[in-house]
Amino acid sequence: MNITLSDKMHHFQTSIFNELASYKKKKIQDGKEMIDLSVGSPDLPPAQFVIDELAKHVTRPSNYGYTLTGIEELHEAITTYYRNQYGVSLNAEKEALMVMGSQDGLVHLPMVLTNPGDIILLPDPGYTAYDTGVTLAGATVYGMPLKEENNFLPDLEAIPEKIREKAKLMILNFPGNPVPALATKQFFEQVVAFAKKHQIAVVHDFAYSELYYEQKPVSFLSIEGAKDVGVEFNSFSKSFNLAGCRIGYIVGNPTIIAGLNRLKSNLDYGVFLPIQKAAIRALENSASFSEELRAIYKKRRDILVNGLNALGWKVDAPSSSMFIWAKVPKLFTSTEFVYRLMDDAGIVVVPGNAFGDAGEGYVRIGLVQPEEVLEKAVTKLRSSTLFSTIEAINY
Ligand SMILES: Cc1ncc(COP(=O)(O)O)c(C=O)c1O
């Protein structure tokens, strides 16, 4: 029999991450030492008290059934965390819902809120899962470019009237991946007003909420009226190094949350109870762990940013998240530069255009290796043919 895949599958091509991984593998087989700064996954362990909580519950035979959804205690812990962190008050039953990693919510929510043909406004460049959600919903993307001259915030005024009329959903992400920008309170206020005027639901992806260095990120839900128009996703993956546990949550507008809950009750059976218990412990004791985590990423950031600038590669220090969004020298496209970095210096980063057309001209560098490895990366760059001729780094 001739098996054919659906038309929808044309949208799901092999990702650039797989291409980079196989090129890196080939280089290693050829005897090259490679330093991988391309992944967006934390290399650090969770807090020991979180591991201990998980271990305790794993040994209880009664904990192996379906959980179906988030347990009440987790939803309570989420609302307490939001009250303490952001002064946001939420109803644990109706305004908070566990998801199987924020990705689960991000890819499924567009189906809950849009019909085929509706427009979804996405940041460009933006996290790749947003596109997946649009495709699953059969909706259409309108990219909102994140430009340096606008501090990498979308220009809402630049969205044409016709697009506003057909748009049903806007996705935002601050601190962002791949662009480590922060939203201001004023920007979020504009978003709430824009959403109300044009009847567009807002999803704010807050996955990097605990990774900041100078200034605490603003929760979208802390803005007056935000709960009327939208929701915020958060994740245990980056803030608590629990990426493999696949647990996150959505908070905010009860109608949107009820819709996602209804869809999910037809899709999955919840998250393993010990993981939910571990997540509760993480939220309850977040303060000191998060502070230590920020100190680690800040040191890494400073090593790499200072090292790259000393080489003549002018990069800005990110004020949040775990990425440097670095301009590519004019001589190269993003992809050319990424391959040159692999060939000449043995460093793997991601071309900015992997996250959308407006990412062309940039690369994303992850702070996902220990300090000594980042120092080595700078040394490798310094001695590479690419960086030994300063003319190459000509903006
Ligand atoms: C911006 C952003 N949102 C969401 C996610 C997905 O996180 P989770 O592990 O909670 O599914 C990621 C993962 O890299 C991300 O970078």
UniProtKB/TrEMBL annotation:
Its cofactor is pyridoxal 5'-phosphate. Gene3D superfamilies: Aspartate Aminotransferase, domain 1, Type I PLP-dependent aspartate aminotransferase-like (Major domain). The keyword Transferase applies. Residues 33-381 form the Aminotransferase class I/classII large domain. One of its GO terms (molecular function) is pyridoxal phosphate binding. It is an enzyme of class 2 (transferase). The keyword Ubl conjugation does not apply. PANTHER family: AMINO ACID AMINOTRANSFERASE, L-GLUTAMINE--4-(METHYLSULFANYL)-2-OXOBUTANOATE AMINOTRANSFERASE. The lineage of its organism: Bacteria, Bacillati, Bacillota, Bacilli, Bacillales. It holds the Pfam family Aminotran_1_2. This is Aminotransferase. Its EC number is 2.6.1.-. Keywords: Aminotransferase, Transferase. Belongs to the class-I pyridoxal-phosphate-dependent aminotransferase family.
